[in-house]
Design brief:
Elements: E1 3-4, E2 6-8, E3 11-13, E4 17-22, E5 25-34, H1 38-56, H2 60-76, H3 78-89, H4 93-114, E6 120-123, E7 129-137, E8 140-144, H5 152-163, E9 167-171, H6 177-189, E10 197-199, H7 204-213, E11 219-223, H8 226-239, E12 242-246, E13 251-255, H9 261-273, E14 283-289, H10 290-305, H11 325-341, E15 344-347, E16 364-369, H12 374-377, E17 384-390, H13 393-401, E18 405-406, E19 408-412, H14 416-425, E20 430-433, E21 449-450, E22 453-454, H15 464-467, E23 468-476
Parallel strand pairs: 1-5, 8-9, 8-11, 9-10, 11-12, 13-14, 13-19, 14-17, 16-17, 19-20
Antiparallel strand pairs: 2-3, 4-5, 6-7, 7-23, 12-22, 15-16, 18-21
Helix pairs in contact: 1-7, 2-4, 3-4, 3-6, 4-5, 9-10
């Protein structure tokens, strides 16, 4: 196989490669991808630093054209890139194509934002003085992305970084290098000057650490585990750099007695189990009032019986495999913990054999859980969901907010009063009413509170808060 190389200072480089394995069929090697060293990472940072002065002063039309070309090519290749995503991550093909389309839309949006860069001219409180307030690029941006959205998350970090005139050192998750390599290749061919975007694939302990240790990175945007996020924060404070963190979640979905049962079950099944539960916005806590509890559990259990778990590329598959053996072990460990804690295993929890060897796990539903159990407090990041019975709306809201996380929250209700109160009082960055907790638009802010997020929001026009710095200039008339 051809080795897909790292991109450093506009040149493809690297021969030391690792296999990218298909979790739906562990006999299939998706491709060979170069593994960068710490020295490679340092070279990429140096290249980005050298390219910054020219790129930061580049014309807005140049940036627009490059981002537009990238978005157009991603859309034109959505089936091909979607298949690559499904093969390397295990997301079903329809979901993978949908994610690819979203990546294209993100590049299209920021291509437009490049033409909408603006500032303010305001009067001074002193006579004959003018004040200009402008946004300028931050500098070299380090981008570290996770494996669960291998094309959308890189897109929503890279596109604004380039739009606002920054240069980039990009390290994708080592489980899913394929989509990231494709984005780098597309942008490289779209006309990015040398060194503006540098791709360094490899281990976080090597490449990521070199990025954290560098004083030449002006900002790091990170999506991943809470533990690694803390390391990013600690190193960034040491270097006085800007940082943005998207980390864990233990998202609640409240189901009230007055909920439309069909709507509630569909939202809960989508939130908790689709994408194999491997979404930071997934609902792994279903908080259900006692009047509807039994009917809801029965209906959700029947729904789970119809969900097909199989090869991500196979037509009719609803849920693909877990991403790798390590994550599968985490999932099964938590299933064991749930049983030991006294929760009732109402459905699933078993490993599944399919035509191809892969990391297949039944959707797993626990009932009679409490909010103090580990399965209700710790992020599992798999298709494992617990149902917590509560008395009424007030207890449901208190239980929903009783978590160290605060990314997304949902409520199923036909009561305008309760829906309005929940939107105002949920301690989450994003709130959904009669919708899955997972799934947000590309043009609006994404982010949470408490232990889920730190720093400015991602996506949409709010991305400028992270990728730029504000300058105030005074002129005597």
């Amino acid at each position: 196989m051809t080795v897909h190389q790292n991109l450093i200072a506009g040149e493809w480089t690297g021969t030391n490669a690792a296999e990218n394995i298909n979790p739906s069929d562990t006999n299939e090697v998706v491709g060979l991808y170069a593994q960068a060293s710490a020295e490679d990472a340092k070279a990429a940072i140096a290249a980005a630093k050298a390219a910054f002065p020219a790129w930061s002063r580049s014309g807005i039309w140049e940036r627009h054209v490059i981002l537009k070309k990238a978005g157009d090519e991603i859309m034109a290749r959505k089936d091909e890139l979607g298949a690559l995503l499904a093969r390397e991550e295990g997301k079903t093909l329809p979901e993978a194509i949908g994610e690819t389309i979203r990546a294209s839309q993100i590049f299209e949006f920021f291509a437009g934002e490049a033409l909408r860069l603006a500032g303010e001219v305001v009067p001074s409180v002193r006579p004959n003085i003018g004040v200009e307030i402008t946004r300028e690029p931050l500098g070299v941006i380090g981008i570290i992305t996770p494996w669960n959205f291998p094309i959308a998350i890189p897109a929503w970090k890279i596109a604004p970084a380039l739009c606002y005139g920054n240069t980039v050192v990009f390290k994708p998750a080592d489980l899913v290098p394929g989509c990231s390599w494709a984005i780098a290749d597309i942008l490289h061919r779209a006309g990015l000057p040398k060194g503006v975007l540098n791709l360094v694939m490899g281990k976080g302990s090597v490449v990521g650490q070199a990025m954290l240790d560098s004083p030449d990175i002006a900002g790091i945007t990170f999506t991943g585990s809470t533990g690694t996020g803390r390391r990013v924060a600690t190193s960034s404070i040491e270097h006085n750099r800007k940082f943005q963190l998207e980390m864990g979640g233990k998202n609640p979905m409240v189901v009230l007695d007055d909920a439309d049962l069909t709507v509630a079950v569909e939202a809960a099944a989508n939130s908790g189990f689709f994408s194999t539960g491997q979404r930071c916005t997934a609902s792994s806590r279903l908080i259900v009032t006692e009047g509807i509890h039994d009917k809801f559990v029965a209906a959700l259990t029947e729904k789970l019986k119809t969900i097909v778990v199989d090869h991500a590329m196979k037509p009719g598959t609803h849920i693909g495999p877990v991403v790798d053996a390590r994550q599968l072990q985490t999932d099964t460990d938590y299933i064991k913990i749930g049983k030991e804690e006294g929760a009732k295993l109402a459905f699933g929890g078993e490993l599944i054999s399919r035509d191809t060897p892969g990391f297949y796990l039944q959707p797993t539903l626990f009932t009679e859980a409490t909010n103090q159990m580990r399965i209700s407090r710790e992020e599992i990041f798999g298709p494992v969901v617990s149902v917590i019975r509560v008395k009424d709306y007030d207890e449901a809201l208190a239980t929903a907010n009783d978590t160290p996380f605060g990314l997304s929250a949902g409520i199923a209700t036909t009561s305008l009063k309760h829906a309005t109160h929940f939107k105002r009082n949920s301690e989450a960055g994003m709130v959904m009413v009669n919708l899955p907790t997972a799934g947000v638009d590309f043009h609006v802010p994404f982010g949470g509170r408490k232990g889920s997020s730190y720093g400015p929001r991602e996506q949409g026009k709010y991305a400028a808060e992270f990728y730029t710095t504000v300058k105030t200039a005074y002129t005597l008339a």
